[in-house]
Amino acid sequence: MRRSSTTGNPLRSASANVPSRSCWPAGEGDTAWFSRHGSTPITEIPGHWPEAYRDLVARRIEKIESDRDIALIERPECKRRWAAESWDSLVERALRGWLLDRLEAPGFWAAQQIMSTRALAELARADADFVGVAELYRGRDVDLIALVTELVAAAEEASVRDDIKAVVVYGGPKVLAGLAEKYPEAKFITAHSATSWQMVDEAAAETGAIVTAEEHSIIGGLGGAVCEAVCELHPAPVVRVGVRDQFGKSGKPDELLAAYGLTADEIARAARRAISMKTAAGRIV
Prior knowledge:
Strand content: 5-15%
CATH architecture of the largest domain: 3-Layer(aba) Sandwich
Order of helices and strands: HHHHHHHEHEHEHEHH
CATH topology of the largest domain: Rossmann fold
CATH class of the largest domain: Alpha Beta
């Protein structure tokens, strides 16, 4: 893997991906740009770059130093600070993506049965390509069981986030506060009752799946009102989270929310149920 030579000045600061004017000789240059941005100018062409790329950079530097106009626009004061993802981060993400894709390869699931992460790791251990990329990702002493467990958990979390972005969550401020903190990408409608049927209709049309979360019995409460509106205006799956048909309890607010399943994790699970119901309905249609 190598950097593209078409992404602007390849000489960047070591700490913030900021383009520098050129490979300044140490001690030269009077700009305060680097100190202002907490960066260190690169004064030599990195030796680990490919030879052809080093030659290209050297020719660019020569042009900058021989042409006053180009030298002016290449000064760091005339450059916009780069906010691009670092190269190391891009490499790490690419390796992680490859490992996740490999774990989903048909060869790992020939038996078509549920297996533990430990069993999956043992299958991965027999895959030389997987082991090689895992060592690039985590080093030669990589613990494959721990790595596979981590990758599976990360994939599950990403899947939850994708699902919760595909539903609208109705609920009161207290219930939605924890969910908004953990899943800020979710779509929320703060409401104590479905007073606007138009709002419900728009939500159902937008996502095709709704979750209601309320500090109340799911019978005759917000969830029931939303179900009535959805059935009449825009049929879509609705999963209700709240107090089931049971006697109430006493306790601290956070303890009661957990006891009745009104936590961010439970609401996220409800979102996944709603999505699976929508998918199943689509297959039937």
